[in-house]
Design a protein that fits this description.
- It is a single chain.
- The chain is an alpha/beta fold.
- It has a six-stranded mixed β-sheet, sandwiched between helices. The chain has a four-stranded antiparallel β-sheet with strand order 2-1-4-5.
- It has two domains: 139 residues, P-loop containing nucleotide triphosphate hydrolases (Rossmann fold); 67 residues, no CATH class.
- The chain is built from twelve helices and ten strands.
- Strand 7, helix 9 and strand 8 form a beta-alpha-beta unit.
- Bound molecules: adenosine-5'-triphosphate (ATP).
- Adenosine-5'-triphosphate binds next to strand 2 and helix 3.
- It holds the Pfam family ABC_tran.
């Protein structure tokens, strides 16, 4: 299967300007394959869904793409203000700063993304402080505004996240990541384990924020129905590799790979 990025050169990219590009990305855990030879482009305002069964390499790929896991091979480039940055060639301190301000990651397990012993407002304010904001009143005001934006009660600004429900924690993670207005957001199974109605409302919120903020998003999920709500384009993974890629409607209407066919037919039966 031909993925656009391999054949593209730098000049072509400059003309089209994807926000994120991965080139032949592989990660190995000893002998075990996490992901292998994945190349992709992510375009401004696009939501790219990554689906596949458990162990197919979705989370490994997302961690490599988002700067959290240095890949064994390949490279990840992001575009920022007309400049192309090679994520893993950056100085560690620069990359960390980028992760704290311009790249958002929402994890399935909120404990990975939220500091449970810091108030909700403190969690939201952290990234603003990383950007240099020091004024207590302004930090609080921004946190309050973002609580409202993700439909959390601002009266709970000073509460510890451990008093929040699962759905509220995901909203808090979203606010915490988006407060610095990044262009790139990574979602790792953001609604898994939540009640169906909570899941639906969270997906609605994400869809609205993606549109309002023109976010470019990579979302990993094992659930095709979840991907369908948000994603414009789909990558299907199996055994660490991308086995199919295409626009959401095309993949659903005309799946090519046997695994995708199984995935689509089981979704229709469910
Ligand atoms: N920290 C790790 N150490 C060793 N092997 C790992 C580690 N993390 C993942 N793997 C292995 O890498 C492969 C891909 O795992 P990964 O978690 O990326 O898949 P996944 O599609 O996200 O699965 P799931 O949906 O269950 O999270 C699997 O074989 C897994 O066992």
């Amino acid at each position: 299967m031909a993925f656009s990025s391999e054949s593209s050169n730098q000049a072509e990219w400059a003309a089209k300007e994807p926000v994120l590009r991965a080139v032949r990305l592989s990660h190995f855990y000893g002998q075990r394959v996490g992901c292998a030879g994945v190349s992709l482009d992510l375009w401004p305002g696009e939501v790219l869904g990554i689906v596949g069964e458990s162990g197919s390499g979705k989370s490994t790929l997302l961690r490599c793409l988002s700067g959290w896991q240095e890949p064994s091979q390949g490279r990840v480039q992001i575009r920022r203000e007309g400049e192309v940055l090679d994520l893993y060639a950056l100085e560690e301190s620069v990359r960390r700063r980028l992760l704290r301000t311009q790249i958002g990651v929402v994890f399935q397990r909120a404990e990975e993304g939220v500091r449970m012993r810091v108030s909700a407002g403190g969690n939201i304010g952290e990234r603003l402080m990383a950007e240099g904001m020091r004024h207590y009143g302004r930090l609080r005001e921004s946190a309050r505004r973002w609580m409202e934006r993700v439909e959390l009660d601002p009266a709970r600004l000073d509460d510890l996240p451990c008093t929040y429900s699962g759905g509220m924690l995901q909203r808090l993670q979203i606010a915490k990541n988006l407060v610095t207005e990044p262009r790139l957001l990574f979602l790792d199974e953001p609604t898994t384990g939540l009640d169906v109605s909570v899941q639906a409302r969270l997906l609605d919120l994400l869809r609205r924020l993606v549109r309002e903020m023109n976010l470019s998003v990579v979302m990993v999920t094992h659930d095709l129905a979840v991907a369908r709500v948000l994603a414009h384009r789909l990558l299907v993974m199996m055994g660490g590799q991308v086995v199919e890629e295409g626009l959401m409607d095309r993949v659903l209407d005309d799946p090519q790979h046997p695994y995708t066919q199984l995935l689509v037919s089981s979704r229709l039966v469910a």
